[in-house]
Every structure is written in C-alpha cells, then in structure tokens.
Design goal:
Na+/H+ antiporter like fold, 2 strands, two-stranded antiparallel ribbon, 351 residues, 3% strand, mainly alpha
Length: 351
C-alpha cells in the first residue's frame, strides 16, 4: 500500500473522522456557548471538576474490567516503564530546547513542556478513539506522570523540598485511586476469590468477585454512564475556557508559540522516534494502540497543575497563562493531524 492509498484509506475511515469531528465540534460548542453567555465564567471550572473527580475516575476504573491477556499485560508493563523513562528523558532534552532562555523563564518553559494535560485533555480523546484498551494504557502511563509532576515539577518551580501535601495529592487523587484499584483487580483477578457467572449464551464462567462488570452489573452500569461523560464534558470545558480569555494578547507572545510547537509537535515526534527504535530492536516493544495512546497524551497542551505552579510561585505567571492558551489552541488543531498520522503509521506496518 503506497502513501496515497494510506492517506485515502485513513481519511475515509468514518470511525477516525467521527472521532475528530466529535472532538472539534464539541470544543467549538463550548467556545460558542461561553462567547454567547450561555455558559457563565464558572462553567469551565465546574465541568473540569466533575470530569476530574467523577467521570475520569469511573473511566479509568472501568477500563480495567476486562480479561487479562499475556500480551496486553506485557504492553501495559512496557507502557508503565516508558511512562517513567520518557519524563527522565524530557528533563534532560528540555534543557537544550530552551537554551536561549534563562532563569525562571527557562525553568517555567521546561516544566510546562515536560508536563502536559494528559489526564484532562489526552484521556478523553484516547477513550473516544481507542476505547477501553486506550484508556487502560493512558491510566498506566499516567502513573509516571503523576510521580514526576508532584515531585520534580513542584521542586523545580518552588525551589523547596518535597512536601507531604504533594505526596497526599499524588496518591489520594480520585483518578489515581481508581487507576490502582482497577490495575490491582486486572492483574490479580486470577488469584482473587472466584464466583460463577452465567453469560448471555448461558455459559457459566468463573470470574473474580471484584469484576463488577460481570458480578455487579447494577454498580458497573451507572459507572459506565459516568465514564461516558468524560469526553463531552472535558471538551465543553476546554471550549468554555478558550472562550474566557483573550487570544489576541496571548498570540502576540512569540515565546508562547515557540513553546507550544515544542510541546504539541516536537515532544510527540521524540516519542515516535524513540519508541520506533525500541520496538524494532525489541528492547521495549509497544503495540500500535500503546504508541497512539502515548503520542496523543504527549501532544496534550499545558497541564493545569504545571501552570498553577508557575502562578503560585511567581515563576513567569503571565508567560505560563499565555503558553497554556496557545498550546491548547494548537493542540486542538494538531490532534486531528496526529490521529491521521498515527493511522498512516498503523497502515504502513511500522508498529
């Protein structure tokens, strides 16, 4: 299959097109509602709280409610390893990327580049395109993200030592709790107490009692509805937030554009190149779904927590705000491009 055929096949795949249009249209709807005053100035914040405290935890937990397979387990462990290694790599790679900047400006740009909005921006898109397997990989990948965000990110921006409150934030976050609970059930389901469950075909199977998708459907169903809110509410929140700020002022900041290009374009490219090498050499092979999940997560705009660090510790807060806005706009534009590129990579058999 040549490049032309790959592009044609990708651009006529209704699943891909639908995922792209869903993302863009709902973000634009949120933007329109805020500009027209249908949404108040608080709607974006409220929706984001609902997504982060309710919808995403349900989405993360539900993703692990599936049978364990040796290949999926292997991929999950590889994603976990890469989710730690890539942040160590970015800590060093971000230095030369912003070599011309000095002091607080460089520190802020580096931290904002290393840590993107993988949970709030990346996971809903991954969920819409790759389903439960993508959400599972994104949840596992985010373990390393949270470790470094609340340790290296905090220390770098504050200049202080690690505090107990950040350790609590790291591990008592609803999404983290749901991820570890789901991960525990998924990995150890063969060793947990088993119960007999009759499926739709009348076949009796033995499953772990904590597999609520089969043993407690009455509980799993409402969690499924809550999980389904993650993507649309996150996209509405992003649109409402974009409608709240002045793009004209932020757009005049050349540094924010340079940063955004590094964050949304260069960082994903680094991941693709390194993972391609590791896969071809069989050092740390990843599947296409794992690669796509990682790339979309790493192409996310500025993480809210990272921007909050800059504002809280007065480390170029205006730059952080401008960079957050520009990177979000660029990420909305580039996400469809990355989805198409990833599909082309898949059809070309690179992964």
């Amino acid at each position: 299959m040549n490049i032309g055929e790959v592009i044609k096949t990708t651009m006529t795949d209704m699943n891909i097109i639908s995922a792209i249009t869903s993302t863009v249209f709902i973000i634009l709807l949120g933007f329109f509602c805020r500009k027209k005053g249908i949404f108040s100035s608080e709607v974006g914040k409220i929706l984001s709280k609902v997504v982060l405290s309710v919808a995403l935890p349900a989405l993360a937990f539900n993703a692990f409610m599936q049978d364990i397979k040796s290949e999926t387990l292997k991929q999950g462990m590889n994603v976990l390893i890469w989710g730690i290694v890539i942040y160590i790599i970015l800590i060093f790679v971000s230095k030369p990327l912003f070599m011309k900047y000095k002091g607080d400006e460089q520190d802020t740009l580096r931290v904002l580049t290393i840590f993107g909005s993988t949970t709030f921006f990346g996971t809903p898109i991954v969920s819409a395109i790759y389903g439960p397997i993508g959400v599972m990989f994104s949840s596992i990948f985010n373990i390393g993200y949270r470790i470094f965000l609340y340790s290296y990110g905090y220390i770098k921006m504050s200049g202080l030592k690690m505090e107990l409150k950040n350790i609590k934030t790291m591990f008592l976050n609803p999404i983290v709790i749901a991820t570890f609970a789901g991960l525990f059930i998924w990995i150890f389901q063969g060793y947990l107490p088993q119960v007999s469950v009759t499926n739709a075909e009348g076949v009796v199977n033995q499953v772990a009692f904590l597999r609520i998708d089969q043993t407690a459907v009455w509980l799993f169903k409402p969690m499924t509805y809550l999980a389904g809110l993650a993507s649309p509410l996150a996209w509405l929140s992003i649109g409402a937030t974009l409608g709240e700020v002045s793009f004209k002022d932020a757009a005049s900041d050349k540094t924010s554009w340079y940063y955004s290009a590094m964050k949304v374009i260069v960082v994903p490219v680094i991941n693709i190149v390194l993972l391609a090498g590791l896969t071809m050499t069989h050092i740390l092979p990843v599947s296409y779904e794992a690669l796509a999940t990682i790339v979309i997560m790493m192409a996310a705009p500025t993480a809210t927590v990272a921007a909050a660090y800059a504002i809280s510790f007065d480390k170029k807060p205006i730059l952080a705000s401008n960079a957050s806005l520009i990177s979000t706009v660029l990420a909305v534009v580039m996400t469809p491009v990355w989805i198409v590129v990833l599909e082309m990579i898949s059809k070309m058999g690179i992964f």
